[in-house]
Structures are given as C-alpha cells and as structure tokens.
Amino acid sequence: MKLSKLAIGIVALGIGAFLTSCGGEEPSDINTVEVDTTAEDELDADLFESPDEDYHLPSPLQVASIFKKSGLEYNSDATSDVSNASNHTEELKQMLNFGVYSADMAYCVLNEQANEGRKFLTAITDLAGEIGMEAVFENEDLMRRFDANLEDKDSIEILMIEIHERTEEYMEENDMQHTSAIHFAGAWTEGMYLGVYDFENNQNKDGVGAQLTEQMAILGNIIKGLKDPRNSGTELEWVISDLEHIQTTFDGFDSVNAFYEDESAEELTLQDNEFEELGSLIKDLRAKITEG
C-alpha cells in the first residue's frame, strides 16, 4: 500500500499547493480527505529517495500552517512543557525534542502567541548547544529581533524561516543532513499530537481530522530517513518501531483498505474509532519522546 496516493499533507517544496481541507455535510462520526494523486511523483522525487541523497524536509512552520489553515485552535495546555528541556540529557532525546519544541514554537507563532513562542525559542537554543548546533543560534541578533517583533506576526514568521534555513545550512556544511530526519520525527510527532488534541477537544474538527490523515503520507519517508546508515548508533530502534507500528496500524484500517481497493475512490474516510486508535498511538509516542 502506497501512502503517497493520499493527498500530500506535507511537501518540502510548494507545500500549500497540495493541501485541501474538507468540509461539506459529512456526518460527525466520519472525516473525509480529498485525494490528489498528481502529487505522488513530487513526493517520491523530493523526499528520502535513498540514504545517499540530501533530505528535503518541510520546516515546523510549514507543518503548523497546515493545521492552522484547517481550523486548529490554540490551546496552551497542548504544547510540551518547556521546563523539561533541561531534563533531556540523552542525545537522542535532545534531538527529538529539538523538533518537538520547534513545532510548538511554530504553533504559538501562527496563533499570535509570540510570548509563548519565545519560551520555545529559548529551549531550542539550549538544546542546539547540547547537540553541537550552537553556531546556528550564537548570533544574539536572533533573540533581539524576536523580542523587537513580538507584535508583528509576519516578521516572526520570517525569522522562523531564517532559523530553519540556518539550521539546514549548518547541517549541510557539517555533513549532518541525516540528523534532520530525527529532528523532523520529533516535529512530526508533536504536530500530529497537536492535531489529535484539537480533534478530541474541539467540535469543529473535520478539517483538522483530514489533515491528521493526510500527514500520514510522509511517515514512510521519515522512517526511511531514520534508517539512514549514518544514524546507526543513535539508538533509534524504539522510535522507528513505534512509527512503523503507527504506519502499519493505519494501513490496516478497513477504511484505508477499502479506499485502495476501489479504483474509482476519490476520498478516504476514517471512522471515529480509527481516528481514536491512531490518536492513541500518537499520544503514546509523544509521551515517550517528551518525558524527562
């Protein structure tokens, strides 16, 4: 089963072109995802074709913007506890939570909660120092510009894009591109968790539920990236195992199988019990990643 047949929820280049939020008059116990099979080739071309190629991953800001456009509402209780940042002493946890806090910062910024976002920027900066990426954030101008533009959402977003670009440039210059898959595994898990939290706690959840399903399209490629031989020795086995379990569970859903068996199907619909099972697995993995 190729998840790339699903509408692409996250695409490294031109992400917005492939997003379709669903609406209509579907019953409250089902959620519909539009399908765009024309994006299949671009997904395959851009993401994790082989361990020898660079990894092209979307930024946490792009991830958060998908859910924001789908109606995700801000809730301060949903984000990871920033006070736990110093409790992450293992390198793998530091790298994963670098991604988690990056997703949380984007979530805050897009919801015009820049003061909260600043807390996550501080945590990201501290973790960068722990994982050998302090050079990305050593310029004090970053924090000064963040503080100077707290009330200017567009400027903060531009600053976040710059941080992401600096991070990618630094990893490329230091032959660390393979570790971006680890950072993104944390960001993807947190993004999915924020979506699950909203889906479970807000009535207007159809669009968010659709995006949760669409983001499953990238999971196989994340797993490929984590399995890059250059990541050996990072003790990623439990992360890979949990992500593979999420993927195989999703692939085994009756609604997913029915969709692929029906060549004329244009929409994938998950039942509430399937969303609940998917959400439970996401929450379990997120707890493992964020626990200090």
Number of strands: 2
Mean pLDDT over all positions: 76
How do the strands line up in the largest sheet?
1-2
> Spans with pLDDT under 50 lasting ≥5 residues?
1-56
Strand content: under 5%
Taken from the alpha-carbon principal axes, the silhouette is globular
Helix fraction bin: 55-70%
N-to-C CA distance: 36 Å
Question: How would you describe what is shown here?
Answer:
With 292 residues, the protein is mainly alpha-helical. It has one domain. It is built from 13 helices and two strands. The protein has helices at 40-46, 60-69, 91-110, 114-130, 134-137, 141-148, 153-173, 180-201, 206-214, 219-226, 237-251, 254-261, 272-290, and strands spanning 30-34, 267-271. A two-stranded antiparallel ribbon has the order 1-2. The two termini are 36 Å apart.
Name the descriptors.
single chain; 292 residues; mainly alpha; two-stranded antiparallel ribbon; 13 helices; 58% helix; disordered N terminus
Summarize this, please?
With 292 residues, the chain is mainly alpha-helical. The chain is built from 13 helices and 2 strands.
Secondary-structure map with pairings?
Blueprint lengths: L29 E5 L5 H7 L13 H10 L21 H20 L3 H17 L3 H4 L3 H8 L4 H21 L6 H22 L4 H9 L4 H8 L10 H15 L2 H8 L5 E5 H19 L2
Antiparallel strand pairs: 1-2
